[in-house]
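subagent[fold] <- orchestrator: predict structure for attached chain, return tokens only, no commentary.
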Amino acid sequence: MERKPWHRTGEDRRVRGRAGQVARARRLARTDGLCERCLEEERSVLATVVNHKIPLAHGGPDTDENTENLCKRHDDEATAAQFGKAQPIEGKGIGADGRPTSPEHPWNRP
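subagent[fold] -> orchestrator:
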């Protein structure tokens, strides 16, 4: 029998459905909805992601102790580090001329 694209294979450790929504709300309430890494930098930025410190894809558990509340910027950095990707370029944006505005962008390097 052929597997349908929406059927999951293997063990799935993520809490889903209503239980997952309750867990996410509980985890965000732990820091009053603020990014944990921004709090360490003495900044107040809303967390938009509940990130797993040890990713589920790497065998991490879906528990409160394995999660941290992060803003978009810190989630991008954490995900890049966890999965061996390049760090995101800071100051992303496009100028009126259509070129990247970040001095770190390869087009703007000397």
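orchestrator: received. Logging for downstream: DSSP finds three helices and two strands in the chain. Residues 91 and 102 are 5 Å apart (CA to CA).
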